[in-house]
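Quick question: what would this complex look like in 3D?
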Amino acid sequence: MSDHSAIVSTIAEVLPEWFLPDNRPGYAGLIVPSERIHEAAEYLKDQKHFDMLTSVTSADYFPEDRLEMVYHFRRSTGGEPLRIKCILNRKDSQIDSLVDVFPGAELQEREVWDLMGVRFMGHPDLRRILTWEGFAGHPLRKDWKEPFFEEEIKPYKSRWPDGKFIRAEEKNPLGDNLCFPPGFDPESWVPDKDETLYKSMTRVAKAGEDGFDSDTIIVNLGPQHPSTHGVFRMVARLDGETVVDLKPVMGYLHRNHEKIGERNTFLGNMPFTDRLDYICSMSNNFAYALAVEKLLNVTPPERAEYIRVIMAELTRIVNHLVANGFLLNDLGAFFTPVLYSLEEREFILDFFEAASGSRMMCNYFRFGGVVRDLDEHMMGMLKAILERLPRKMDELEKYLIGSEIVRVRSEGVGILTPEAAIANSATGPLLRASGVPYDLRRADPYSIYDRFDFDVCVRYHGDIYDRFMLRIDEIRQSIRILKQAVRDIPNGPVLTGKPQYQVRVPAGEAYGRVEGPKGELGFYLVSNGKSNPARYHVRAPTFINLTSLAGMSRGNKVADVVTILGSIDIVLGEVDR
Amino acid sequence: MYGLGILKGLSVTLKHFILTFVDDAKRGKARYQSPQGIAYRQSTELSGLFTVQYPEEKLPVPEEFRYIPFLVYEEEDGQKKLRCTSCGICSKVCPPQCIYIVRSVDPETGKPVPNPAEFCIDVDICMNCGLCAEYCPFDAIKMDHDYEIASFDRIKHHVFDISRLAKPVSYYASIRPKNYKTEEEAREAKAAAKQGAASV
Amino acid sequence: MKESLNSPGVQIPEELSGQVAITTLDRIYNWGRRNSLWPLMSGLACCAIEMICTAASRYDFSRFGMEVMRPSPRQADFMLISGTVTKKMVPQLVRLYNQMPEPKYVVAMGACASGGGPFKEGYSVVPGIDKFLPVDVYIPGCPPTPQALLNGLMKLQEKIDHQTLKSDAHWYKKGGSAPIPVPILGPDLIDLRKIEQIRLASQAPEPGTDEDNHEVPHE
């Protein structure tokens, strides 16, 4: 069952005839000739009001010698995404870049170049993003094998019935996770010293007023730094203390999630999704379960749906508590707001531990429901949390929102206009704090969110203070949803069908998405009928939200760059996958 | 007055500070190093000091807590008999493939015997997901609660073999009483059904 | 603290027992060091969140003297590697380790830092930080709960207790210890201590390779 036949049928008759429908069984969307993709993007944006490009990815169909680019377009007024595909050949793949129409495609196209080897013509800065300059090969291609490669798909035959223990290092000639191209001479290698990166930053030639010529300096912030956002590096060009240009450098936590995901079975990917956005593991599980359930065409029972909503909203509260606490940490209130937020978070983590077995890596969702029911004791814990949270939120609000230091440092800083937010494919609190009331739970409802009564929080200034206040508003709305869910939850089973570990997923593709705490988290899955995904891509909200970082930082002081980064609320597990 | 916001915030901190002493005074000695003290600090009516002082006070872990797996054995006539039949499902379902099983082979006939000759778990790869315990059809591998397994040398100590993994059923019943009860009831029901079918 | 500072085997007269303690130089030196270990905040991934929770109010590790979590390596005593070590990040970690003043320790927290973890099969993951740095304590778990981390840190304190000034305090000897060479990023991570091995392995003719494929190392 395709997931957007509705949208295609409403506009298909008014699209030009070179938008061809994708008629493969289990597939949906439209195919556009690759040389006309730029024209198609402009047409969709100007004539059909698809002003958000939410996802740019690719899929390697190795046996058929074909590489596909897959684009998902959305309207900021709501609705399902429109999937457009372009077919390229595997040798010498290139296509026009869409950065001039949709600036949000910039980082995503760099990722496709890095991992899949598709060259984008017209891209302003096509460098590798998740691996490093000089890396050999394009890892996500099907014929590229990693150094510790054992077998094509899991489960490996070498583990049973003759599974003698052997470390992977012993099988590799270098004794480590390394493989070099033949004839490589390590002593003659000159490593890349970021010259292209520094040269690519805009210069501002300033003729001095008094006859002095001033110059700008380049400062690297990170990857080791006191802010607790993880291993992320920003290269800033400063004129005195003001930022002239800024470029993010990521890939310091690139853990090959997508390549490992193609080797795993569908069920085996569930614990790996916990580790994507490691603060909100339930939300990642939710999005992945939705994507696979679309392919399997199975719906969870009622009680499981309510439990899923409860877990998703609790995760939203956990994430916003952490985000706000760490933002206040960046603003200078060294550790006390973090301590108060983490105290509330600990109660919710106790609930997660009781229900799923682990504080953070919950692995709780399954295809067709959840793994375990919530008993009386756990519902009692949940009700106690819901009784404590509102008054603690009042206290946290009283604590810092009136503080003059916080207001002076965050009002008017890091402004993101609504047009820039939509053009940069921002989603989540970043988009809503700029005045665009776009929330997937209302715009493109999934699960049972249409039964709950809640408001979409919006704020209109687009600065750091608004994002901070928006997250507090969202916590209150989540508490409202939780109270309704706890009141209405029915009794019944929590899993459709029997629990089975060999899930045979019919061939096709699906894009499952949720409104995660940080934005739209989506999983694009392609299955070829076997027990392992053929292509597994994560649409990471924070990775794409980082496109707006440079625009927000220009003109601000270098001390504000750290707080702007804190207000975007990044998690490196998701940025780098 | 400028600065009122900061003062309001500082008053919240001051209140937390004073509450720690007030609560200590109210509850006296029972607040620390006693099970009801730990339970109080885990409940949501808490006000005051939140710290649980490890190692003197250990926060109890809930029943579903998962850390490293262990193999369950039953004691029959003083012999340890592992429930594991080396069917290999746990090793197939493990996402990072950290379970290595060698199935026993009968030396005379060459046929496989439902018993593991070797069973290794590489703890440096295990991600504590619990899928092995969830899908084992014989209730033979379960997730342990023991988290105090730090060591100085990983080559020697971080590959758990059968001697390190095998723990008795009584241990399993003590850490997971509810699950144990449900499983025992299911086993008895199955045995009764089999007997009923056999006697017919 | 399990042992008291008093050295057993030396009898202190009754009237002085509350006022005098007799100890060895080793014991008091180690007592000072183990009770004020300052961690280097090298939080890489998910384990870093559990590290922050250990620093937070419920499992406070300032009770052990470790609350001063320094981001600068010059002021830190031990490096708590929490999270997956990737090839892009390893040069920075080795540089940080070289900048730390002696005596320094390394604690590998979590399965990823100990031995690669669930991501060991990945192409850009270093399978355990002990490929580059000498690790003192390994804490398995994914992620280790804060209580497990505290248990691991107590093991580090135990290790320090057993060190002696004569044989283990190499920071007082002439010469000092050589810094670890920082690896460089080539077509794959180049460890400067293994250059000969890399050259030999790259020159051995590999059967059945394609020009733009990465070789399959085994068979």
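Answer marked as accepted. The radius of gyration of chain A is 24 Å.
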